[in-house]
Specification:
Radius of gyration: 16 Å
Helix content: under 10%
Distance between the termini: 26 Å
Strand order of the largest sheet: 1-2
Shape: elongated
Largest sheet: 2 strands, antiparallel
Structural class: mainly beta
Length: 63
């Protein structure tokens, strides 16, 4: 399962967790992905989209 938004292409980012003692440990920030059913060209489709795309109205949930 890929962790990529189907609308904007947002994907996991990597970096370091830095402790108070300046120790660096690798970590991953993952996008807040949701499985949403929506209607595209007359048919129901399940998309994995990030919460920001849903909130900004780029996709409308099917009721």
């Amino acid at each position: 399962m890929s962790r990529v938004c189907d609308i904007c292409g947002k994907r996991p980012m990597t970096g370091n967790t830095v402790s108070h003692a300046k120790n660096h440990t690798r970590r991953v920030w993952r996008p807040n992905l949701l499985k949403i059913k929506t209607e595209m060209s007359g048919s129901t489709v399940t998309l994995k989209i990030c919460a920001r795309c849903l909130r900004s109205g780029k996709v409308v949930k099917k009721v």
